[in-house]
Structures are given as C-alpha cells and as structure tokens.
Amino acid sequence: MYPTKVVLPDGSSIVVRYHEPRKIIKLPLNLAELSEEEKKIRLEKRKPKQKVKIIDDLEDNYNAKNIALVTTGVRGCHPEPSQHVELNVQATRFEAKRFMEGMPQQRSD
What is the DSSP letter of 106? Predict the structure, then answer.
C-alpha cells in the first residue's frame, strides 16, 4: 500500500493508503449540489480560452534614400570641418538624430 493524497471536492485533502503508487487523487465535483452561479463559473472555466492575438504594428519608416551622406572623412575617424552631412527634407527628426549619434565627434583642438 502506498501513501496517496486525496483531494476532496471542497478543496480539503487527506492522506490514505492506495494499492497503486499515485501521488494525488482528485475527486470530482458534483455539479448538482452547486448553485446556478457556481455552475456557470465552473462551466466557463471548462471552455477553451481565447488566444490573445498580438499584432506587431511597429512601423519602421527608415529609408536610406532620405539620408544622404555626402562625405565621411577619409583621414582618421574625424571628418574635416568642411565635410558635412546633408539630410534630405523628408528625413524625420528621429532618423536625423539617430544618424548623427553614429557620427564621430569633431575634435576641438
């Protein structure tokens, strides 16, 4: 005989000896003894849950044609003062800021 936990319909549990090795046995709930409201709740729990549909509507309006780099500076990592970046009028502020953050800073020697 094996010690087995039996869960009663009211949620309480007891340990009994069972002829097969089982960890837990859950006794069924008698729906006839429940009120109408409790029956409704129990039946709703049995129905399959609706899957949540996640819509990824993150728009990336980045367009490489909107940002044109005229020159990048050939010597060293810092561009010459005469070299600059032209931004197309259609480029958004976010794109311009993101682009400028990637540019190396000029030295003020």
Answer: P
3-state secondary structure of 36: helix
Q: Compute the CA torsion angle 12, 15, 19, 21 (nearest 10 deg).
A: 90
Is 22 within 8 Å of 16 (Cβ atoms)? no
Could you report the per-residue pLDDT of 11-61, keeping only the tens digit for each? Answer: 899 999 999 999 999 998 888 888 999 899 988 988 888 887 777 666 666
The continuous run of DSSP H or E covering 45 comes out as helix 36-46
The ranges assigned to domains in the chain are 1-29, 64-101
37-42 long-range contacts, CB within 8 A, separation 24+ = none
Under a CB-based contact definition with an 8 Å cutoff, are residues 29 and 7 in contact? no
